[in-house]
Amino acid sequence: MRSKKTLLACWMLYVIAIATSSGCNTNQLSGATDNEGETLLGDWRHYGGDTHNTQFSYLDLINRENVTQLKEAWRFSAEEVGDSQTTPLVIDGTLYGFTPALRVFALDAAEGTLRWQFDAGATGALIGSGKTFTGPARGLVYWSEGNKNRLFAGVMDRLYALDPETGKPVAEFGDDGSIDLRKGLSGDYTKNYVALTTPGLIYKDLLIVGFRTSENPPAPAGDIRAYDVRTGELRWVFHTIPRPGEPGVDSWPENALEVSGGANNWAGMALDEERGIVYVPTGSAVPDFYGGKRPGDNLYANSLLALNAATGERLWHFQTTHHDIWDRDLPSRPVLVSINREGEQVDAVAQATKQGFLFVFDRVTGEPLFPIEERPVPTSDVPGEVTAETQPFPLQPRPFSRQHLTKDMLTTRTLAANAWALEAFSSMRSEGQYVPFSVGQPTVMFPGFDGGAEWGGAALDPASAIIYINANDVAWTGSLEAETVIKDVGADVYMSHCSVCHGADLKGSPPAFPPLVDITERLSVAEIKTVVYEGKGRMQPFANLTVEEVDQLMSFLSDPAQSSAAAEAGIKQEAASVSQESQRPAYRFTGYKKFLDPDGYPAIEPPWGTLNAIDLNSGDFIWTVPLGEYPELAAQGLTDTGTENYGGPILTAGGLVFIAATIYDQKIRAYHSATGELLWQAKLPFAGTATPVTYLANGHQYLVIATNNARNRNGPQGNAYVAFRLPE
């Protein structure tokens, strides 16, 4: 094993090389101080590793030569269940994270022992019952100035400032330690669904945040806001749905705030601290799948925004999807990188998309660094819908997910599966990207609604400008139907609020969207109401529903006769067409449908998930490997299929790409960063659907991943943070 002084020398040479070649500000690099006063780059101080979101560590105590010796060092569990997606922070020997029930905790980073825990009391978690009614929490924000330190934690619609030493709220921040993120947005704030699922970032004395919100009306506009880190005072706001007199307002109807919302940042941001620029990716406008009441390109939805971090002023933007009707949110944080162009270093920002595209822009001007072509795309035949005539396609790098599903790409896993897929596919519309949904006919989304890229983010080698991106490669389908108002209130509430995810037939699209058939046999009415009012996982709370509407919904779900067939019959009850004056759209989405064969596997040929290495200097792919497998298929000899994956990779100076992410095999893996060769893997107690971290504690390098099985309902349920290290 290398000595500490040799390791330190390697680190500093690496840092100097990066600083010289790319203009990297070494003052931004994470650090801790050892007993000799040497600065070691051993902490994980930011959600994305650093403010550039490189998810890169300069540690190399674990490297290609010894990675096979990694063993589990400790395990921490809050004895809860839920969708743990947290990338923890590790600062000065303390690890900070979330439990599935949104309790903030601090652990001894070397031993995994609990130091403190903060419970905001804002969740409906039923500890020990196997049910947790919360949303995901992906990370935290740490601020330090002199002897003042604060840990910022988003707990649903509240932003807390905590003392990192004790976990107690800092009274002078906001209202006795927290602020209500619903306030100040469009609409009645008491009816707004707002959740800070992904942390913001710090610029000087500002905490800049976005939020998650509803994808159906009513929903607030997705304002980007900056708060004073000391007082919680609102310092600036950028309107992602422009107000009168603001640039971009002509890309919306006059009543945009009444009929739409969203265009929010839920995936996180990147910061160029030296230039004072924050890069903000935004999601789609509301409603997701029918835009008849929001004609126009709808700026600044589906856009990468470059804002003045001190004032919120727009510097430049690029819209990756015009008038989005496919839920093509920008799903992950942008990555700041310096690339070589004709012998000169150009500071750039790279943004991945659900479509499997990677856009690369000049960080200062917003000029594309690879050609982007506006191509004609199909137009909609749905009444009232006016789609964009063209959409932007980057010509380099090539897409990292497949783009057009054809019949020769259908599964051949078995003859029966292939025959089923051919018949099902014959009724679908599959013409590539940006095909508008039709009424009554399924349209293929490939890659599916969950990408392509997802929220886990990419990892970057700052010295070589090679980026590592994991991707889903599974097909989904969707369609529209005319909206109706059903006389049965419970059925009407279900169809207008629930069917988009759980389907008109209550069968859902597991595991992301569970079935509700016989739901009252699995949960009590009180527990279902808690989910409705407080949300669960990716499901939003429905604070806008009245008590009577919720009671009627419970009656609808509680009646055994209201099974899938009865639900469809409910649609056929006497109904009135939705008027143009109604807030409800004239057409509704019939539900997310994953294209799976009768055995539950993707009905297309593998790979169903990949890990990719791309050189951002040239736009060329270095390597691509399948990521994940189904254990039962692997036992039959069908290995390396890849699977859906959530959570991202990290990269280390030891030449390793670490990633878990896969749903079904519950493994964490280490790949050779130059070749993609699998060097190490370990079984986890649950799936590691989060992005891991690595750090230094007591002279050892650790690797930690948050695990859960919320996306695999057939697997054992629970959660644990698992740490690995080399033996003594």
In short:
The protein has three domains: 1-116 and 453-474 and 604-728, 8 Propeller (Methanol Dehydrogenase, Chain A); 139-330 and 358-398, 8 Propeller (Methanol Dehydrogenase, Chain A); 484-577, Orthogonal Bundle (Cytochrome Bc1 Complex, Chain D, domain 2).
What does this structure look like?
The chain has 728 residues and is α+β, with helices and mostly antiparallel strands. It folds into 3 domains: 1-116 and 453-474 and 604-728, Methanol Dehydrogenase, Chain A (8 Propeller), CATH 2.140.10.10; 139-330 and 358-398, 8 Propeller (Methanol Dehydrogenase, Chain A), CATH 2.140.10.10; 484-577, Cytochrome Bc1 Complex, Chain D, domain 2 (Orthogonal Bundle). The strands form 14 sheets. A 5-stranded mixed β-sheet has the order 3-39-40-41-42, with no helix packed on it. Strands 4-45-44-43 form a 4-stranded antiparallel β-sheet, with no helix packed on it. Strands 5-6-7-8 form a 4-stranded antiparallel β-sheet, with no helix packed on it. A hairpin with a 5-residue loop joins strand 41 (667-672) and strand 42 (678-683). The radius of gyration is 24 Å and the shape is globular. The N and C termini lie close together (11 Å).
Sequence-ordered SSE layout with sheet pairings:
Elements (H helix, E strand, L loop, with lengths): L3 H19 L9 E2 L5 E2 L15 E2 L13 E6 L12 E3 L2 E5 L5 E5 L5 E5 L22 E5 L2 E8 L2 E5 L15 E3 L13 E2 L5 E3 L2 E4 L2 E2 L10 E5 L5 E5 L17 H4 L10 E3 L4 E5 L21 E6 L5 E6 L15 E7 L2 E9 L5 E5 L9 E5 L13 E5 L20 H11 L17 E3 L13 E3 L4 E7 L3 E3 L1 E3 L1 E3 L2 H14 L22 H10 L12 H12 L5 H8 L3 E3 L9 E3 L3 E2 L14 E7 L5 E6 L4 H5 L14 E3 L3 E4 L7 E6 L5 E6 L9 E5 L2 E9 L10 E7 L3
Helix pairs in contact: 4-6
